[in-house]
Each structure stands twice: as structure tokens, then as C-alpha cells.
Design goal:
The complex is a heterodimer. Chain A is mostly helical. Chain A has helices at residues 15-18, 21-37, 43-60, 64-71, 74-86, 108-134, 137-146, 151-179, 187-218, 235-258, and strands at residues 99-101, 104-106. A two-stranded antiparallel sheet of chain A has the order 1-2. Chain B is α/β, with parallel strands linked by helices. Chain B is 40% helix and 24% strand. Chain B has eleven helices and ten strands. In chain B, helix 4 (98-108) crosses helix 5 (113-126), helix 4 (98-108) runs parallel beside helix 6 and helix 5 packs across helix 6. Classes of the chains: A mainly alpha, B alpha/beta.
Chain lengths: 259, 255
């Protein structure tokens, strides 16, 4: 079965793809830190920061349409959160309420909060998608490892990424097998069958885990995951990171200047 | 020490935690460079037996690999010498990329980075999968996954290659290229399979297992043309030998 992989473009060949994964991880963290610490009314800063992932995608040959399509994931969250944020703050006594809807008032503060949350979410999501679209998953794991992320966590992530699609496939096959036999199933039976499917999937996963462990033991596994040495940072990696750092700091400074 | 004996199993017994006896006293030897098949119905104990050959499972009795007794001290060396390719390549390939999977064994052997890289290159070349290093297993076809599964043990340079149902789920072309690949290996090969034509093709000797014991140990050609022996052990004549016996049956059914 075919899944819509989020890292579809991760194995491209461009300047961005060739950068060290560690640098890209750090760069993403830098961008996120910049966005999260920006005061909500500095829309200019959010725009300046948001341009970075779009520009990186352009440089890397990742279609910008793909970036924005994946970024649509923020929409349901905003729709869900939006109303609460809008009505969440009392209007300051000095200012007129922005608008009044029956018993509810939308304050300038509520609106500002919504804009702030939306801006931060969009920059965060664009950055993350750009990161996974320009770095293969194994590269990210190696990057995390060289940033001293505990081996247990990277190993868990590695297994999760390897088997999650397989698990989804297995679940889908089981659903097809059920549906091909369930001609007229009552709602109650249908719910019950979902529980059975979940249990069956759990046992299959458990058994697969045992088999994988056997395969690991067979190849000399003794409890410690070993990896080859991570490649050294190149000059280009360091320069790229410095430029990005300078850009983030500069954007924040500009924001303060004009804000 | 008798070095021409690759595998020496004596009175091997194994009982599952639920009390089912999977191996009820199995004894056989395999000479170095011999290609041998283990056949028998489902549940005969074939896979359990294979898991004993590198100590993934351990029952009572003795297992010796190239004269090395199976024990804690020798386990590491035995696992280097015996490479098991499990049936489902999705169990065998558990790393993010093909390279990582093929390098997993050599890295566990503690080899230096350069040796690991050349082992991976060589193993992938042997199975015709050069250029797949950075691919993720999930995106590969079944046949490709199977070939790479074999590369994951070849990279440990084992003397003995053990395969559990190597041709199951392969399409005919994939099956043929796998058989050709195995034929080319100058190693001891043990194959557990239901593919009796493969046995005739590849293995001069076979063991028939049933209910945890070995009921036949001898030439494949003799065993696989003995319809009665096969039937009593849940097997049937290989397709390529069925022609002669089926023809009279069909003609009598028609008349």
C-alpha cells in the first residue's frame, strides 16, 4: 500500500540536502526559538522568519506547493482554538472592544493573541516540514545522536519510523478481510470487531517484536546499538548555520526597531 | 577436531513454554560446503531447529558448529559463522536504511569503519543490490527485500548460511534468481522449505522432519520420488516429478 510520506523529497540532491543533518536540526531549533520568543505583535518578524523555510525549500528544489499543502495541518487546530482565543481576554478599559457578538466581545487583545498563536504555529510547521523534506529520517537520527540525544530515544524513533507504515498496512489488510465477510453488521458488532482487530494487531506486533529481536541476536546484537562515526562538519555547514543565526537575530532586532 | 563437519547436532530436544515438544531428539551432521534441505509439514519443528543453529533458541542436547560447542563463551563466534536469514524480510530489515541493515552485523562484530563499509559494498554486490544503500526497506519490493536480507548476513562473512523458507512469497522470476544466487555460494547452506522443486534443484541431500524428529536423512532425489514417504509426512511429489504419475490417473478419470 502507498502512504503519503511526509519525507517525500528528503532524498533530493541539492546544497541544502547535502548540509550536515546536525546543522539543519540546530538551524530549525534556532528558527523555532526565534519565532517562539518573538512578541505577538511583531508581525514583521514572523514574516521574516517564515520566509526562511520557504526560501530553503526553493533552494532545495522542494516544491513550495508541497510545503504549503503539508502546512495545512494547522488549519483544524486554528479552527478549534480560534474562537476560544478570540473571546479569551477581557478588553482593556481604555480601548473600545473590537466587536460585540451578543454576550461575547472580541477584544483587541483576543485578536492579537489569535494572530500570535497562528503566526507561531505557521512558522513552526513550515520549519518542521522543511526540515523533514530536506533531511532523510536516518540523517535526522544521526543528527540527533551527534547532538547527544540519548541512544534509547533515537533507537525507539528509528524502530517507530521503520514499522509504523507496516503496522498501518497490516491494520488495513485486517479491515479489508473483516469487511469482506461483514455483510450486514450491526453497529454494536462493528464496534466489537474493532476491538478484536486492535487486540489481534497488538499480538501480531508483539510477535513481530520477538522475531525482530531474534534477527538482531542472530547478527551479533549484544544490547548496544553501534553506528559508524558521524561525518565531520564542513566549512559550508558552519557558514550556513552562522548565516541563519545572523538572520534570526537580525530579524528580531528589526522587529524591535520598527515594532 | 574434525573441521570438515560444519554442523553437528546430537539428541537435540526443545519444549515450548506451553509444553509442546517442538524437537524430540534430533541428530544429524552437515559436512562443510554441503547444501542440505530440511522439509516437512508445518509445525514439524523446522524453524525451531534452525533457531538452534546459532543459539537464538537453546534446548537440551548438543549443537556444535565447526567443532565449537554451543555455549556462552562460543556464542559470539558461532553467530559470526552461522548467518540465519529469517522468513519475513520485514523482520530481518529493521534499520532506517539498507546500508544500516547490512552494516548491523559487521558493526556488532566490532570491525573498523573502513572494513564495515567494504563488507557492505561486497555483500550488496554479491546479491546484485549495489546502489540501494540509502534506500529505506519500506519502499522496496519483496524480492529486493529478500536479496538484501541475504546481504545482511553475507556481510558477516559466515561459513554457514541458514535460510528459512527463502522462496515463499517470491514471484517465479525472483525465485529463479534466488536459486541461482544460492547455487553460486561456496558455503555450507541449510534451507528449510516447502519448495520441493528448489530442493531438487539445489540440495543433493535432504532431511524430512515430522513431529519434532527426523524421519529421513539421505539423497533428495530418492526421497522426493518416493510418493509414499512424502505423503505420510504431509508432503507431495515435486511438481517436476508429478507429470509421470498424474498422467495415468488423469486418463483413468477421463475414461
Amino acid at each position: 500500500m502507498r502512504h503519503d510520506f511526509i519525507d517525500k523529497y528528503a532524498r533530493g540532491d541539492s546544497f541544502v540536502h547535502r548540509l550536515d543533518a546536525k546543522v539543519k536540526l540546530l538551524g530549525a531549533v534556532l528558527l523555532l526559538a526565534g519565532a517562539i520568543t518573538t512578541p505577538g505583535d511583531d508581525v514583521l518578524v514572523f514574516v521574516l522568519l517564515g520566509i526562511v523555510p520557504v526560501g530553503v525549500c526553493l533552494l532545495a528544489g522542494v516544491p513550495v506547493a508541497h510545503l504549503f499543502r503539508k502546512a495545512l495541518i494547522v488549519v483544524p487546530f486554528l479552527v478549534l482554538l480560534g474562537p476560544f482565543l478570540l473571546f479569551s481576554r477581557e478588553p482593556a478599559p481604555a480601548l473600545e472592544p473590537y466587536t460585540v457578538l451578543g454576550p461575547l466581545t472580541v477584544s483587541h487583545e483576543g485578536l492579537a493573541l489569535l494572530v500570535e498563536v497562528a503566526s507561531k504555529m505557521v512558522v513552526t510547521v513550515l520549519t518542521t516540514i522543511t526540515l523533514v523534506s530536506t533531511t532523510p529520517f536516518d540523517g535526522l537520527l544521526r543528527g540527533l545522536q551527534s547532538l547527544r540525544c540519548p541512544r534509547l530515544i533515537t533507537t525507539l524513533l528509528s524502530f517507530m519510523y521503520r514499522y509504523i507504515f507496516l503496522l498501518v498496512d497490516e491494520g488495513e489488510r485486517m479491515v479489508v478481510a473483516r469487511d469482506s465477510r461483514a455483510v450486514r453488521m450491526s453497529r454494536w458488532n462493528s464496534i466489537r470487531s474493532v476491538a478484536h482487530l486492535a487486540a489481534a494487531l497488538f499480538f501480531r506486533t508483539f510477535e513481530r517484536g520477538e522475531r525482530i529481536y531474534s534477527a538482531m541476536l542472530s547478527r551479533g546484537f549484544t544490547g548496544a546499538i553501534r553506528t559508524l562515526d558521524v561525518p565531520k562538519l564542513m566549512q559550508a555547514d558552519i557558514i550556513a548555520l552562522l548565516i541563519l543565526a545572523g538572520y534570526v537575530v537580525g530579524s528580531r532586532w528589526l522587529g524591535r526597531f520598527y515594532g | 577436531m574434525d573441521n570438515t563437519r560444519a554442523i553437528d547436532v546430537a539428541e537435540l530436544r526443545y519444549t515450548y513454554p506451553d509444553g509442546k515438544e517442538a524437537l524430540a531428539g534430533v541428530t544429524f551432521t552437515v559436512r562443510a560446503k554441503e547444501k542440505i534441505a530440511i522439509i516437512g509439514p508445518n509445525g514439524a519443528g523446522k524453524s525451531t531447529l534452525l533457531a538452534h543453529l546459532n543459539g537464538v533458541k537453546s534446548g537440551q542436547g548438543s549443537v556444535k558448529i565447526a567443532g565449537l560447542k554451543m555455549n556462552k563463551h562460543n556464542l559470539r563466534e558461532i553467530r559470526r559463522r552461522v548467518g540465519i536469514v529469517f522468513q519475513d524480510p520485514d523482520d530481518q530489515l529493521f534499520c532506517p536504511t539498507v546500508f544500516d541493515d547490512v552494516a548491523f552485523g559487521p558493526l556488532n562484530l566490532g570491525l573498523p569503519a573502513e572494513t564495515v563499509r567494504s563488507r557492505v559494498d561486497h555483500a550488496l554486490a554479491q546479491v546484485g543490490m549495489c546502489g540501494y544503500e540509502q534506500r529505506a526497506a519500506y519502499h522496496l519490493s519483496f524480492g529486493e527485500k529478500k536479496s538484501i536480507s541475504i546481504a545482511t548476513v553475507l556481510s558477516m562473512e559466515p561459513d554457514i548460511l541458514v535460510l528459512d523458507e527463502p522462496t515463499s512469497e517470491l514471484d517465479p522470476r525472483g525465485r529463479r534468481s534466488l536459486i541461482d544466487l544460492l547455487r553460486g555460494f561456496d558455503k555450507t547452506i541449510v534451507i528449510a522449505t516447502h519448495d520441493l522443486d528448489l530442493v531438487l534443484d539445489l540440495c543433493s541431500r535432504c532431511l524430512i522432519m515430522n513431529e519434532g524428529t527426523i524421519v529421513y536423512d539421505g539423497a533428495s532425489r530418492d526421497a522426493l520420488s518416493d510418493a509414499e514417504l512424502l505423503r505420510s509426512n504431509g508432503l507431495e511429489l515435486p511438481l517436476c516429478l508429478q507429470g509421470d504419475t498424474n498422467t495415468p490417473d488423469q486418463s483413468s478419470a477421463l475414461s
